[in-house]
Amino acid sequence: MISSLTIIRAVKICLGVSLLGQAVAAPNSTLVLSAPEVKKVLRHGPWPPVLTSDKFTDAGNEISTSSVAIALGRQLFFDKKLSPTQNVSCATCHLPGKAFSDGVAQSKGLDGLPLFRNSPSLLNARYERWYGWDGAADSIWAQSLRPLLDPREMGSSVDFIKNRVVATVSISRKYIDVFAAQPSSQTAELVSVNVAKAMGAFVASLVSGNTPFDDFRNALERGDTAAASMYSVSAQRGLQIFIGKGECSTCHVGPMFSNGEFGDTGVGFFIKPGLVDPGRHQGIQELRASRFNLLSNYSSAGPLDRQKTSLVTPQHRNFGEFKVPSLRNVAQTAPYMHNGSLATLEAVVAHYSNLNLDRLHADGDQILKPLNLAPNEMADMVMFLQTLSTPVKPKKGLQTSAR
Ligand code: HEC
Ligand code: HEC
Predict the structure, then answer these.
(1) What is the rounded (10 degree) CA torsion for 214, 342, 135, 63?
(2) For 135, left (φ over 0), alpha (ψ -120 to 50), or beta?
(3) How far apart are CA 366 and CA 128, in angstroms?
(4) Contacts with 26 (C-beta within 8 Å, 6 or more apart), sequence order
(5) Is the distance from the beta carbon of residue 367 to the nearest atom of ligand 2 less than 6 Å?
């Protein structure tokens, strides 16, 4: 193990030869990264990334960039009367002040019992490939329909949703604007899908702002050593482990700090004796069976988006795999992991540091090994992870944009 002292000594390395080939003078800099490390860091940006798939911010959702649809979706997202109980909305489990997560280990259902899954942040959902910890949905709108109709979440029905839309002037007026149709003349299922699509448009508009990490990364790209030096040495050392011996960036890649796929990190998938959460394995089966996936008649997905769903098939290794979460805004989304079993970032770092290899699948990921980090290295890693969040001022940090 390299001691952090060695790192500090080895590092006063300037970005003398920056990647862009410009010479940068950095005699007194507190930059601790080598040129090859800088190259790896640059791959985690720029932020926000450019959408690659097609013209929709939500796959298969033809209204996803309409500003009226986003306004309608925002109203519906906070509407407790879409639930017959009249006291649950999407925002019950996705709070704007908590990066649209809910701060509890496992969200509670209407029956008061835990749902066994942790509510994820909805920020930057437009850049995800799959939705839910098991990827059982391939678009934001399909994922939104699920809690509406799930008896344990909002407990609604397509008829109930249609009635709410038809009977509420402030909703139906926008609905007619967006969909150019009278909801009363459509099937309840179509109205419900359209409600979910408007919610999808709103959720897809939630993009988080620049973070201290982004400022650092962009300064490195410009070769601006003075600006880069504003980033704490501790965070830099954490970053160094993240892209180096920690192998974290093998799965937490790119601007989202996620490869958009699924993995096994040795978090238990037993819910209680005799009951397991099969994760991705079941997610793929649900996705393929869904009447609301990107291959369905309700989807306007182009060939590229349809392909991701038509090609996916469950494999044995998918059992107990969960989505590699984005680490953006991770400081605001405790507790962690699919089941909320780790309360703090310190606990997550300790989990990776003391990893129990026996808990990884035999045919699972070969990437992870116990890191045995020293206490100061763990503190550095936590410091780094904290720089991935937009400074907490939900209103300001949050940009809502159609594109
Ligand atoms: C009772 C709590 C609860 C309610 C209400 C709820 N959600 Fe969720 N949400 C969750 C949980 C838990 C997950 C993770 C689900 C999983 O892994 O299958 C989730 C996942 C999601 C995701 C996937 C995010 C990702 O990146 O994987 C989206 C999008 C989402 N919810 C949107 C909504 C919308 C829109 C509504 C309102 C119609 C809503 N949710 C209502 C708890 C809730
Ligand atoms: C093999 C791929 C892989 C590697 C390597 C990896 N992770 Fe993860 N990470 C995941 C997956 C998958 C999850 C979700 C696991 C679950 O919920 O059961 C996760 C979850 C997390 C979370 C919790 C985020 C949240 O919102 O709940 C953090 C923080 C995190 N990882 C940081 C790291 C760090 C730091 C490293 C390096 C020491 C690392 N990861 C290495 C795949 C990986």
Answers:
(1) -50
(2) left
(3) 24
(4) 14, 15, 16, 225
(5) yes
pLDDT digits (tens, 9 = 90+) for 270-288: 877 788 888 999 999 999 9
Q: Which ligand is nearest to the CA of 339?
A: 2
Q: Tokens for 170, please give them.
A: 């402030």
Does 263 sit in the ligand 2 pocket, CB within 6 Å? yes
pLDDT at 402 over 80: no
Q: Is 239 in the pocket of ligand 2 (CB under 6 A)?
A: no
Angle at 53 between CA 47 and CA 58, to 5 degrees: 85
The closest-lying atom of ligand 2 relative to the alpha carbon of residue 269 is 18
What Å distances lie between residue 269 and 335, 338, 341, CA to CA?
A: 16, 9, 10
Q: Are 365 and 222 in contact (CB under 8 A)?
A: no
Residue burial 223-255, b: 16+ Cβ < 10 Å; e: rest: bbbeebbebbbbbbbbbbbbbbebbbbebbbeb
Residue pLDDT, tens place only, 11-64? 333 333 333 333 343 444 588 999 999 999 999 999 999 876 557 899 999 999
Which of 352, 372, 378 should be mutated for ligand 2, with most atoms under 8 A from CB? 352
Q: Which of 240, 249, 252 to mutate to test the pocket of ligand 2 (most atoms within 8 A of CB)?
A: 252
> Which residues have CB under 8 Å from 173's CB, separation 6+?
none
Ligand 2 near 343 CB (within 6 A): no
Residue type at 187? T
Max Cα-Cα span within the chain: 72
Q: Which value, in Å, is the radius of gyration of the alpha carbons in the chain? A: 22
What is the Å distance from ligand 2's center to 71 Cα? 34
Tokens read off for 54: 């097609």
Phi first, then psi: give them for residue 255, nearest 5 degrees: -60, -30
